[in-house]
Protein: ROK family protein
Amino acid sequence: MSQTLVEILGVTEDVDGACGPERLLVGIDVGGTTVKVALVTLDGVVQARDAVRTKSMRTGEEVLEAAKQVQALVAENLKPQQQVAAVGLALPGVVTAEDTLLMAPNVDVDLEGLILALERVMGVKVYPVNDANAAALGEMWKGAGEGARNLVFVTLGTGVGGGMVFDGAVAVGRNGGAGEIGHIVVEPGGRQCNCGQRGCLEMYTSSRGLVYLYRAACEAAGEDPVPLEHDAHALPIFDAARTGDPVARGAISQYSAYLGRALGMLACALDPEAFVIGGGMSAAFDLFGPELVAAYQAATLPTCADTPIVEATMGNLAGMVGAAYHAKTREGL
Structure:
C-alpha cells in the first residue's frame, strides 16, 4: 500500500507490511472535580482535548460514571481506523515504580477505584503516574525541555513540587517520593512546614512563601503592604515590583535566592541538562528569572553553572501529554 493511501485511510503498517488501526494514547490529569483528557498520537501530537466535570468521585457509582464520561469523550474524538493503545493517568498522589498508588492526601477522590473503572470501560491498561512527574515528562517530550533526556521540573504554586526525568523516564525512588523538591531545607531552623520540618523551600518559594517574605519586608521597612486577598495572593506583589516598588522587588530577590540555592544543590547531586520552571508563579518568570539564574550560579559548581533554567511552555497540557508519554513508554510503543 502506498504511503499516500496509508495517510488517507488513517491506518498504519506493522513490521510485516499488514495494515492495522492507528494506535493513539489517552492522557488524563485528575483533579478534585475535574478530569482533563487529551487524545495524543504516538508522536506526541494532541488530536483532541476536553474535560469531564463531576460533583464528586468518592463512591464506586460516581467513579464509574466519571470513567464512562471519559470513555464517551474519547470515542467522540477517535477518527475512523483509530484505537486507543493505552491510558496514562496523572494523579495528585505518590505512585511507585510498579504503578502502585500509595497515598493521595490532598484530593477526596477514590483514585484506585478510578483506575479500575477506566480499565473496565476503556478495555486497555491504565498506567498511573504522579501529576508533577507527568508534567515533567510532558515538558521533556513536547515542551520547554524537548530534546533533553535528563531534566528537573519545578512547579511553583500554592505549594512547591517537582519531577525529575533521567534517560527519558521519571525518577520515582524507593518509596515513590522522588521529586519532592519543596521539602529541601534551605533555611535550617526556619519556618515550620506542614511536613514537620523547618525551613523547607516550599515555605519561601510558594505563593504563600512570597507573601510571607513580602509582608516581613514591609514590616522591616515600615511600609504598608499592597492589598492582598489571602495568604497565597502573590500576584499584586509582582504587579508592585513591575512598577518599581523597592520592597516588592526586595522580597522577590529573596524568593529568587532561596530557589537558586535549592537548584544549586540539585545540580551538584543530579547535573541535569535543564531546569524547567512551571506552575502559576512561573507567569512572573521574567521578573524573578534573571535573579534566580544569578543565585543558582552562585550556589552550584562551576561545571554546572551554565545549565539552562527556563520557563515551562505547555501549561495545563503538560500533565496530560506527560501521562500519555508515560503510558507509551510503559507499553513499549
In short: The CA atoms of residues 159 and 206 lie 5 Å apart. The chain has a mean pLDDT of 90.
